[in-house]
Amino acid sequence: MKNVVYIIVGVCVLALIAYVGFISYKNNALNSEVAELREALANRDTILQMQNEAILQKALEVENYKKAQEQVKEKIITRYKTIQVDLGATSCEAKLKALESQLNTFFER
Questions:
Q1: Are 105 and 83 in contact (CB under 8 A)?
Q2: Where do transmembrane segments lie in this chain (predicted)?
Q3: Cα(52)–Cα(44) distance, rounded to whole angstroms?
Q4: Cα separations (Å) of 33 from 29, 75, 92?
Q5: Is the whole-model pTM more than 0.70?
Q6: Where are the domains of the chain?
Q7: Phi and psi of 88, rounded to 5°?
Q8: For 102, which of 17, 31, 50, 69 is 20 to 30 Å away at the CA?
Q9: What mean pLDDT, rounded, does the chain reach?
Q10: Burial of 95 (0-12, 13-18, 19+ CB in 10 A)
Q11: Predicted local distance difference test score (pLDDT) of residue 42
């Protein structure tokens, strides 16, 4: 009877050792999976941050473009304004002043 008790206790100890080994193995596997998932999450966060910075940069470029467009429109309006030329001017000096006015308006920057 004593031998049977020793055998049962031995089997229970072996089962407990096997159970602890299995739990340890599963814990190690889960820890490595968690580490991989954390690394993937960190990579995705980095990518997301880079994309957000690129979007903000594009938004700033669009705002700068809009501001520049207003200045360009003003230049175009000024550069190509209608110039009144006195067709009745007979003196060379009047004609020269009219031409200078036209050229200055066109090449004004």
A1: yes
A2: 6-25
A3: 12
A4: 6, 62, 91
A5: no
A6: 1-108
A7: -85, 0
A8: 69
A9: 85
A10: middle
A11: 93
